[in-house]
Amino acid sequence: MKHFILFIAAILSCLTGFAQGGYDPSGPGDPNPYRKLSVLASPKSGGSANSHNGSQIAVGQTVTCYANANGYYDFVHWLQNGEIVSDNSYFTFAMPDEDVEMTAVFELNYNPESPDDPQEAKPSHRVTITSVPGIGGYFNSQAFRLCEGDSINVYAYPNNGYHFEEWLLDGILVSTKNPLNIKMTDKDLNYTARFSYNPVNPGDPAINMFNPTTGEMVIDRFNPGYLSSAIYDLLGNSYDYSQITSLVISGIMDVSDFGFAYNLSDCAVIDLSRTNGYTEIPSYAFESSTALTEIILPSCINSIGRYVFNSCKNLSVITCLAVMPPSLSYGAFAGVDNSVIIRVPAQSLDLYKNASGWNDFTILTADSDMYSLTVSLPSDAGDGRYRNMSIELLNTSNGQSYRYLITDKTEYIFDNLLSSTEYSVSVKNNKNEILGEISSLKIVDKDISAQFQSLRQPKNIAVKVMTPDENDITSEVTIKWFNYANELLQQGPTLSRVLENSVISYSITLPLHLQKIYLQPSSQTITILEQSVLTHTLDELGTGILKGKVCDADGKGISTAIITISQNINGAYTGSEIAQCDDDGNYEIEVTNVPIKVSISANGYIGQTKDLQTPTDIGHIVLEKNTGITVYPSYTFQASTTTDQETSDWFNDNNVAYLIEDLDGNEILDCIYQSGSIILPIGIKIGDKINVVVYSKNNLFNRVTQTVSINSKSVYANLNIVGYGGISITTTDDSAATGICILYDMAGIQIGKSRFRGNSISFENLPDGQYTVISMQKSTLLGSVSNLSSFQETQLVRGSDYLLDNVNVVTGQITNINITDIPDLDETKLYYTDSKETYFMPNKSQLTIGNYVTLKAKLTIKDEYAEAINAATLVVDIPSNCELVDNSIISGAGYLGYEYADNRLSVPIKNLSDAIRFCVIPVEGGNCKSSAFVKLVIDNNEILQPIGTVYFEANNFSLSVPQKTSKTNIAIRGTATADSEVKIYDNDILVGTTYSMPNGQWSLNLSLYKPYSKSIHNLYGEVVTQDGKRLLTQSKTVDYDQGYVDLSKVTMVYNNSIIVFDHLNGRNTANSYSYAPGTTDFTFIADFTENNPEKISNVIIKILASDGSVRSLPADYNATSGNWVVRTKYADSNKLPVNVTANYQLNTKTSMFDIDRYNDDMLNFNGYLETTISSLANGTSEIISDSDKKREIAIIPHGENSTEYITIEQIDYHQLKAEFEILSKISLEDENRSFCYRDTI
């Protein structure tokens, strides 16, 4: 069917004749056959597809479908019954004898890098258009904003007597074409259109002739839109239009040119057969042309407007050269006598006789002055090598083209060609590339022929990628082919059917594991001369030895020094490794031969950083001993409670952080923050005073400040922390299980929502202030309204629909509320929209402050209310930590007017079916919640109905790590302000550095510091912004277990597209895919680092869709493929998969050392293990000489000796300290057991 459609479209779109020899038109059948045409867009958010949607179209009628992509989307192709029929946004075909569903497929042009960030929004800039001279012309749009990367066409319309010449950008010539296609860059653009006066040279004798004696006028040189000016100039000083009795026009016309007929009071014959550039005779074009007796219409038209020939009483002959009868609008032939003869192409005679409106007249053939051109292909065409390519005939005078699809024949005949006309003929492939061309074919009162002797041949070219040791790794890399304009031609190792002598380029992209070994190849440009297989051998990056010695000022080696190596490889992979010094301070490590950033640190010393181009022997690194003053902070913690509670001297929270400030509250820079201590910079001296500040990185308590005097080299500060307060809500209502409580802060912003569990709800960790609690029955829309004021604007009534309580929260206290009855709520009466077709959604769920997020609202009014609505307004509450992007509100009709005040956006809705999009920018970090409403005016009553709430998180900085892993080298990622330095610490040891990208994203592959089975690693990030500001991320825990099985990847298979979500490395193999309506099956395949069904069970595939929804689907183990597979359907183009992960149950035995196994036995672990570990066993532990140099731990009852140590490799004091700070609730109440450690010598 696909080829049939292409064949029909190629022949019938604008051709004035069918190929002779073998064509036998079938009988007319039903005199009025009509079929339904449906034109769809996929996804709906991608753009619009217009033309006759849902209409009944006459069989054989030429139909043009056109697609317009929305912002951030690109048009891909047209589908008919799931098959691609065209990749042009404007697509013309002939209606077959069956219902047709044409679908315009759009593709989101974003680059999803993680499940948190499916796409990146784009900043916009201003475009200004001016004309020179100022009266030279005007434009379809003169000043507007355009997002980076988006395109728009700007049309220049010359004023009378002026001609468009060229486009200038900042005074530099950029184009002579009209319209100008503008693709937005990263700055404002100022274009100038230059016009010239009097475009036609009156001294040119070969153009535009008029014989006043005979009244014959020929116009064959004019600019579109200037036909009337050309006629006016030919009349000379008389300007007497009544002299014109016959008018022949040749060239490209604009619809506005049809005003020429208004003054032709005595013109009897008008010949438009040689014109092109339009598809419709506009309404009223020849109305009341009473002198008109004959008119010839061109083959390019497909419709005739209203009253075109109204009251043309003397019209006797209409020649219409269109192959398909143009559709007739109301009154097209009103007042025309039925005796008029219609002359049409011979092969179209039956079509006109059966076409409504045309069949009211006598239909005859138009054979006079019509000739043919026979085109012959080369003899090698007989083997079918040119099949499905096209032969195109171009009328060089008016630009009209005719096209045949090449089949098995070698000879093609173009009929019904006009005499005294010049043509060119070419053979083109489906990429519109020319294989051969014959020009200057003139038809003068006879048939002619043209023979292609030879054509450029299509060739196949392939690339084979080899390693230096001659291993073929082509299947592991991505190869893309591009044409001379850098447009993607094909992806894969082979480029097929590319024409000889074509200049093409190809790129090779290495996967992550190869980027660590080989140099990323540069793009290669070649000229295709013959079929061949190119071999590309990769170059190894190579490795080198980084070595040196770390020593103190006396030259003594520092054995405790840590060497952190960070490298950016191939611009895409950032990796870090750690080296440790031996007893003499020496270190040596093999690393990739690329630039290196080396950080050297040791407790008690001032660290250093060095940048190296290649690994080398950097010799002695001398670290100066830190002789500064040391602060030892500690704290007590009291949780909030309804009753007095004794303070605790230990609080297990890794997100407690310290800060040193001066007495004015300014941070003192260059402090060295170490585990349990802070070393002050040298400028701080004994006798000074400082502020020691403790704060919560996850906002669990108010910052506490203590001013201390520095009286010695060691300063101790103890800070009393009291946790934030909270609210406890209880009820005796038996229906509480369906009830919810919504919490609004003192600014009226919703900060929490929860449902009752066991007749109670609690909100914890609330900063001091006045809060409002709404209690009501569960409601998806009403329960998510972000602003209290907006909630109170709805039709809900306090007391009968909901309860409201004002609560004052103070630090350290839980405030109680008791509710007796939760009101019933009938919300069905409140909704005027169809919930299935109404939505409000963001384009991302997480971003860094300063970047754009696009919000999109779409509503569909229920049928029963549609006619009653007098006005509609979209109302959106913008989060207080976000700013609206000026003039970013757009819909299908273009930019919209709006009002914006007090963080509320109001947009009058002109077309209820149009989606509305706009952009906001988070300016402060935190959770962002925005609610949208539609304000309807019905019977002079205003109704505010919520349509949805969106959530997204804006980060100053963030850190994402795997919670558990079996890998000593892990991939982590996060966000930070643009171009900031990011340092990652593992248990306070620097393990990697990198820099955030301009969009705030960063990623890093790092080695865990001293991992051993069941070791626990506290990772946190330190972000240093460009202005020197220091920020800390929350701490994240990574549990390392050699026996653990990691999720390796989830593969999504859809319609022959494969996308791999690589969870080990945090990357995807593709950025987008095309969705074809009707093809709804998706397959998801989960792979683990060990696909062992005895270890892995209960695999659940979790799929994030483009609307923010998540599906959780159980996957089955496939013994054949050795992985877990699930299949599902996605039929809604607004809800398509964008990222995938998997949850699973791991069935493994406990490792030999398992801290959790000892549970309460370790509750008496005493503080920080200090320096004398043996004292913890009250002198009972002993250090035994052991040649194996193993490190061991044991649980020893008090008063007993024990040699039953558990051996652990690669464990040290700092690791143990961190281990127990995390996993133990330290208490001194139980003195039955002690924890012992020894490092044998």
Description:
This is Bacterial repeat domain-containing protein. With 1241 residues, this protein is mostly beta strands. The protein has eleven domains: 32-108, no CATH class; 124-197, Sandwich (Immunoglobulin-like); 209-365, Ribonuclease Inhibitor (Leucine-rich repeat, LRR (right-handed beta-alpha superhelix)), CATH 3.80.10.10; 370-451, Immunoglobulin-like; 543-622, Carboxypeptidase-like, regulatory domain (Immunoglobulin-like); 630-722, Immunoglobulin-like (Sandwich); 725-829, Carboxypeptidase-like, regulatory domain (Immunoglobulin-like, Sandwich); 831-930, Immunoglobulin-like (Sandwich), CATH 2.60.40.740; and more. 4% of the residues lie in helices and 46% in strands. It contains eight helices and 96 strands. Strands 18-19-20-21-23-25-27-28 form an eight-stranded mixed β-sheet. The chain has a six-stranded mixed β-sheet with strand order 65-75-74-67-72-71, with no helix packed on it. Mean pLDDT is 79; it is low at 1-32, 110-121, 199-206 and 1150-1241.
Quick take:
By secondary structure, the chain is mostly beta strands. It has 8 helices and 96 strands.
Features:
1241 residues; mainly beta; Immunoglobulin-like; Leucine-rich repeat, LRR (right-handed beta-alpha superhelix); 11 domains; eight-stranded mixed beta sheet; six-stranded mixed beta sheet; 96 strands; disordered N terminus; disordered C terminus; signal; Bacterial repeat domain-containing protein; LRR_5; CarboxyPept-like_regulatory
